[in-house]
Amino acid sequence: IAVTPKAPDNSAAEAKRETTIWEAFNTNVASTPVKVNRYIWQASLEVLDFMPIERIDPFSGIIVMGYGTPPDGRTAYRATVHVSEPALDARALRIALATRSGPTTAETMRALEDAVLSRARQIRRDDGLL
Fold this sequence. Notes:
This protein is α+β, with helices and mostly antiparallel strands. Helix content is 34%, strand content 22%. The protein contains 4 helices and 5 strands. It has a 5-stranded antiparallel sheet with strand order 1-2-3-4-5, with helices on one face. A hairpin with a 4-residue loop joins strand 1 and strand 2. Helix 3 packs across helix 4. The termini are far apart.
């Protein structure tokens, strides 16, 4: 009786190799999708619609807006919005706001974040998912 050697099962070895600390550093970040909250994303675009969009990347959750003056305002602002996670939560949203003379106050940025989050909740309520 001839016995042919069985090919080695590499699935266990592959699984073990992928769980090493070194594999964590070698992962392809570009292939890892970032999930952003669609309500915060849409609300950001609506609240900041007076600013032109310079760059937008839904995969990283970044919106870069150029200088624009709000209705009935005199100061031009620019903003960078970062939506970092899928939860409709204040931790998921960060906005950096600046004027031509430099960054705005923390209170102004917080008020803008509150406006975006309020609008996001309205959009979600209108979808009937609240």
